[in-house]
Amino acid sequence: MFFSPVLGKLLLVGTGGFIGASLRYAVSSRVPKIRSIPAGTLTVNILGSIVLALLTLSSEPESMVYLVNIGMLGSFTTFSTFAYETFRLLEEGENLSFFLNIFLNVTLCLAGVSVAYLVLNM
User: Fold this and answer.
1) Could you tell me if 87 and 31 are in contact, meaning their C-beta atoms sit under 8 angstroms apart?
2) pTM
3) How many Cβ atoms sit within 10 Å of the Cβ of residue 11?
4) In 3-state terms, what secondary structure has residue 5?
5) Nearest to 74, CA basis, from 3, 23, 114
6) What mean pLDDT value characterizes the chain?
7) Which residues lie below 8 Å from residue 48, measured CB to CB, with a gap of 6+?
8) Which of 50-64, 72-86, 103-117 has the lowest mean pLDDT?
9) Is the C-alpha dihedral spanning 10, 16, 22, 24 positive or negative?
10) What is the DSSP letter of 37?
């Protein structure tokens, strides 16, 4: 059976995408809003930042990049949902939550990457 490297990579990304999207739904649907801040999206973005940093900063096989980094974490975390939910906060006049949501997503996700870096360099 002919199995091209491109098809293999595509299957890894697709499999990872299915897993990541399912995990995202499972995690984000169970995390309640904090005030009006969509904490589910914040949670998956923080977790995804930590896992991506751990895997990227360590040595991993190329197949893991396609399966986990691109596929699973690409569908687990989402900037588009963050942007939409943040815009909705502004549209709904939730100005404090609008700025707080931006601040928390950016700072906590960067902190997650920093934690992963520190863990790998201990």
Assistant:
1) no
2) 0.79
3) 14
4) helix
5) 23
6) 91
7) 73, 76, 77, 109
8) 50-64
9) negative
10) B
